[in-house]
Design goal:
This protein has helices at residues 2-10, 31-46, 131-142, 152-156, 188-191; strands spanning 25-27, 50-58, 73-80, 84-86, 89-100, 103-106, 110-117, 120-125, 146-147, 150-151, 159-164, 170-174, 178-182, 195-200. It has one domain (2-200). It is 22% helix and 37% strand. It has 212 residues and is α+β, with helices and mostly antiparallel strands. 33% of the residues are buried. The chain is built from five helices and 14 strands. A hairpin with a 3-residue loop joins strand 12 (170-174) and strand 13 (178-182). The strands form two sheets. Strands 1, 2, 3, 4, 5, 6, 7, 8, 11, 12, 13 and 14 form a twelve-stranded mixed β-sheet that branches. It has a two-stranded antiparallel sheet with strand order 9-10.
Amino acid sequence: MKFLLMVITLGLVGEVAAVEQPGGSPVTLSKREYSFLENRVCHANAEVAASKIKAYKFAATPGGDGKIALAARTSAYVECEPHGQFHNRPMRYVDDCDLVEGEWDCSSPQLEVLSFVKGREVKLRPWSMPPEEADLLLQKVGTLALFQGESIDEAIGDSCDLAKTKDPEVIELGCKATMAISFWCPQIQKTGCPRMLYLSFEEPSYKRRRTQ
């Protein structure tokens, strides 16, 4: 089981979470760069304008103690204006872009919806899952109180990415903490369903090459 959880945690290292990250040095974008990013992420996908584009330069982050090392990089967080509603709340596209050899390289924009967990707003990016399914799953996770002494509410934080793993019964959540949950519940009366397999604040699963 320990090996399986390691595979779950590391198997999605190549993925990208589109979340604004403080901590870098702000970078001023030219009008050409701003226009390119807006067109690439917002106009091309939903024919809307960008509501926010912020760029930062980050120094290299060393690894060690099992943590992911990150190379020095310049990244831009792009947030689009809402293009529709999900449960009467705005939904939009967001994306992270990296400056590679003088040109901006963007991943596939991700849909972002708003979910409410215990009465508070959580930004939710469902990736390949239908947003209705992802919202319901996060609601179920939010009903849990503790896992191995850790607060589930604190682990969720204010934003989450959900991703399917190679195991169809296991879902990974990249929130304030890494969580892995399973829909295989042979002892449902004891564990509930879905059941928590893993939770760690040490290395958030969506701290990627293009970081949050």
